[in-house]
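haha ok so turns out i had the wrong file open the whole time. this is the CORRECT one, sorry everyone. sequence first:
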Amino acid sequence: MNTPRYYVPARSHWPIIGAGAVFLTILSLARSIQESSSGEVSGLTLALTVVAGCAMLFMLFGWFGEVIKEGLQGYNSDQLKKSFRFSMGWFIFSEVMFFAGFFGALFYARMFAVPWLGGEGDKGVSNMLWEGFSAQWPLLTTPDMEKFPGATSVINAWKLPLINTALLVTSSFTLTFSHHALRAKDKQKTLLWLGLTLLLGFTFLVIQVYEYGHAMNDLGLTLNAGIYGSTFFMLTGFHGAHVTLGAIMLTVMFFRVKKDHFKPDDHFGFEASAWYWHFVDVVWLMLFVFVYVI
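then structure:
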């Protein structure tokens, strides 16, 4: 009787490095938000952000590099591959709940907090805090215009955001074509469609950076522009960070395809990256509707 084999990896230093990188990332993010509300981000915070980013990339490339080597050496049993799929599924679920929290904050502000301050609903007595305040969304005239000056206007949903929506939706199709080509053992088409996906993804990021500059410099839309500004940048900013991570993952997949790391029936690294990319695409569609359009 054959005893089932299960590969148990050796002790690793990567988890503690990853924990440190996550801590630095959260610390730098908290400092950036706090300092940007007062008008200027310090050099120390910028340096901390760079260090955190480098530490995170070092951990990701180092840890996943070891996992890739183990897979190429044949250490990944069917049971381990199954655990990879469950792990990626739970990771994406955690990301769903992460964004659900921010969408929930947006919903609460729009449907409850702002109307209450305007005198509507069961808690309309809150209007006494800012007498004469008029509830509207997007909230351009904040209750306290001295501390939280509202934006002069909002970003037109049917210009840059619509272009970005078309880019991400198209990238989902090109990535799917690449996946089908990989399963069909067509390396050239796999690389072609995957390369086009990366081009669309990085173009999305460039446009979003330009949009942020336009919002801050021309429209006065910043994190300090009241609840509308804070929810706008929290949702779109975190989504942009996820698109960046997804683009990095797909870039790694591009070079792994070139090195023939995948087989038509064994390419979970590619599949996991595709799952993640489709997830950020769906989140963007929700952002486009609830942040830009409605």
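The helical segments are 14-36, 43-72, 78-117, 160-183, 187-218, 226-258, 268-293.
again sry for the mixup
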